[in-house]
Amino acid sequence: MRKFLLPLLISLVTFSTQAADEPGACLTPGTDYLAMEFNAFDQTMKQGWREVADREGCELAAADLIRTYYTEHSDLSEGRLGLLRWHEGQMRAEAAQYEQAVALFHQTYRDPENDSFGWNYYVTATIAFIEKDKERLLEAREQLAAVEKPSSLNMTDANGNPVEMRWPPNLHIVDNFVACFGKTYLEAYSTQCE
């Protein structure tokens, strides 16, 4: 009986690993991801690439889907293209494709004159974490922490209701990069380190 179960278990493990590696296994049949408008594809939880990324082992399928989406949609603004490249980079970093992730992250830097939220410091901190450069990570963290909240900033939801926002944005993620230094991007981004 044991001789039968072992090959069966091995074949089931092999099948489940292969399924996640095959892009089609990660996509919902009948869903036309490329026909989705930008907000549905990129900004809505449980839809678009995020739905794919939520499936275990489907980070690369999500990254490839994002790349295909922005390649097929040549009418995207620079801002939206930057967001998609960032999200593709995150998926590649979660899958430990660090070189590709860093290259994508570099493409998301903004003109410093249009960076009142400290985005560039967040990008630098993320790259420093991946490249295991603690000094640069700590420097970027301090620069991000020093970003002053614009007095004219009034965040609201779609109905015009005020929305509280952590300030500066992404500092909590960078703090976790510091606490998780030496761990993988996936560990640092998805768990709280002490």
Structure characterization notes:
- With 194 residues, this protein is an all-alpha fold.
- The protein has 2 domains: 33-108, no CATH class; 112-148 and 164-193.
- It contains 11 helices and no strands.
- It has helices spanning 2-21, 23-26, 38-43, 48-53, 59-72, 78-94, 98-106, 119-130, 134-145, 171-179, 185-190.
- α7 (98-106) packs antiparallel against α8 (119-130), α8 packs antiparallel against α9 (134-145) and α9 packs antiparallel against α10 (171-179).
- It starts with a helix and ends with a helix.
Write the layout of secondary structure elements.
Layout: H1 2-21, H2 23-26, H3 38-43, H4 48-53, H5 59-72, H6 78-94, H7 98-106, H8 119-130, H9 134-145, H10 171-179, H11 185-190
Helix pairs in contact: 5-6, 6-7, 7-8, 8-9, 8-10, 9-10
Number of domains: 2
The share of residues in helices is 55-70%
- The portion of residues forming beta strands comes to under 5%
Find the structural class using helix and strand composition: mainly alpha
> Whole-number average pLDDT?
87
* CA radius of gyration: 19 Å
The number of helical elements comes to 11
Would you count the extended β strands for me? 0
The end-to-end span amounts to: 46 Å
**What are the low-pLDDT stretches, counting only 5+ consecutive residues below 50?**
1-21
Sequence of secondary-structure elements: HHHHHHHHHHH
Give the overall shape, derived from the CA principal axes. Answer: globular
Main sheet attributes: strand count, strand direction, barrel closure: none
